[in-house]
Design a protein that fits this description.
Number of strands: 17
Radius of gyration: 22 Å
Number of domains: 2
Largest sheet: 7 strands, mixed
CATH topology of the largest domain: Quinone Oxidoreductase, Chain A, domain 1
Mean pLDDT: 92
CATH superfamily of the largest domain: Medium-chain alcohol dehydrogenases, catalytic domain
CATH architecture of the largest domain: Alpha-Beta Complex
Strand content: 15-25%
Distance between the termini: 33 Å
Shape: globular
Structural class: alpha/beta
Bound molecules: NADP nicotinamide-adenine-dinucleotide phosphate
Order of helices and strands: HEEHEEHEEEEEHHEHEHEHEHEHEHHEHE
Number of helices: 13
CATH class of the largest domain: Alpha Beta
């Protein structure tokens, strides 16, 4: 073979578009974050080289761009989440990537399309994923990387909790704790877009004014600390604020109990997380005299039950439209290079919390 011919083949095989990966004849070489037992993520997760085979039939190969680290990812690796993967497992439940190869039967998608995985538990903390065309959603290129990478968990959870439990109208009020969480930030922004007022509970901290200003800038009507919630009179002042119809709880314990006290008769409290690890206690009077509805919500179950429902795709459409119109932006975050995954995991897991940002793995180098 002449040296020009061999150079041509070399450049075809090692396409410059594939930056940190090498395209082989039979697939794509890259890396993944795997674990083979439950335990402390920093100890059980390790980076492994891998080959993602060229796609067959209805499959596509997606080169990942970014994937967040969510509390549920940590709990899954610890073995404390109801989803128990088969070992060895690749961590990560959501993210965004670009199609780099399509199977022979794929006509609806093309190389270069930006997509997000539609199922959880597929293992997004890796450079390449082989997915069925049914398991990806094509998204517009103008959608921001952060918004796309974090779309399927928190914005969808916020959206469903605001839609499915109470019929909210402009001018209504909701109350939520963990208001500075990624999910809470979505709740605030969706409510602003829908004209719903939000009372947002956060833990006291040194930079409270900065946090409060950040949330108000997103559209928060009121931001209160847990302590202020106990004594607040915002719902008593006539004409100021109607009592909340809906309370969203991702903390539990005393904090959830305080929110219940302010909930309007016949209202709902939806529990979707338990960050304080304390149980939710419901006073008897809340059930008898206030007729409150006490519910739980799990996005994973909803998505499974509604995999191809119209509601699901309308939700994606509405959220993406809000994001591209700058009505809904991604959470406060820090991008961390894939190689520094340990730093990202450790920072996500600090015992005292108050991290202030979502850590997002970046696969772009
Ligand atoms: N059920 C579902 O389908 C579903 C879907 C999405 C999320 N979630 C849950 O929602 C919660 C938030 O998720 P995320 O991704 O939005 O999280 P995130 O951005 O990492 O935020 C974590 C939130 O938890 C608060 N927090 C941490 N430790 C706490 C403690 N000991 N007491 C009180 N608050 C504490 C943090 O407040 P500080 O700043 O004060 O630390 C922050 O507001 C998690 O529990 C997650 O599992 C559930």
């Amino acid at each position: 073979m002449s040296s020009t011919a061999s150079k041509k083949i070399f450049s075809l095989l090692f396409s410059s578009q594939l930056s940190n990966s090498i395209r082989l004849m039979s697939g794509f070489s890259g890396h993944k974050l795997v674990y083979s037992e439950f335990g402390e993520p920093i100890k059980v997760i390790h980076k492994e080289e891998c080959i993602t085979e060229a796609p067959k039939n209805n499959d596509v190969v997606v080169k990942m761009i970014a994937a967040p680290i969510n509390p549920a990812d940590i709990n899954t690796i610890q073995g404390k989440y109801p989803v128990k993967p088969k070992f060895p497992a690749v961590a990560g439940n959501e993210g965004v990537g670009e199609i780099v190869s399509i199977g022979p039967n794929v006509t609806e998608l093309k190389v270069g399309d930006r997509v997000i995985p539609l199922q959880s538990g597929l293992g997004t903390w890796r450079t390449h994923m082989s997915l069925s065309k049914e398991d990806v959603l094509k998204i517009p290129k103008e959608l921001g990387i952060i918004e796309a990478a974090t779309l399927t968990v928190n914005p969808c959870t916020a959206y469903r909790m605001l839609k499915d439990f109470e019929s909210l109208k402009p001018g209504d009020t909701i109350i939520q704790n963990g208001a500075n969480s990624a999910c809470g930030q979505n709740v605030i922004q969706i409510c602003r877009a829908w004209g719903v007022r939000t009372v947002n509970i956060v833990r006291n901290r040194q930079n409270l004014t900065e946090l409060s200003d950040y949330l108000k800038n997103l559209g928060a009507t009121h931001v209160l600390t847990e302590e202020e919630l106990r004594t607040t009179s915002i719902f008593k002042k006539s004409g100021d604020l109607s009592k909340p119809k809906l309370a969203l709880n991702c903390v539990g314990g005393q904090n959830a109990l305080e929110m219940l006290r302010h909930l309007d008769n016949n209202g709902s409290m939806v529990t979707y997380g338990g960050m304080s690890r304390e149980p939710v206690i419901i006073p008897t009077s809340a059930l008898i005299f206030k007729n409150l509805k006490i519910k739980g919500f799990w996005m994973t179950r909803w998505s499974k039950d509604n995999a191809s429902s119209i509601d699901r795709f309308e939700m994606f459409e509405e959220l993406i439209s809000m994001m591209t119109n700058n009505e809904l932006r991604g959470p406060s975050h820090k991008m961390v290079d894939f190689d520094n995954f340990k730093e990202a995991i450790m920072n996500t897991m600090t015992v005292k919390g108050m991290i202030g940002k979502k850590y997002i793995l970046s696969f772009s180098n």
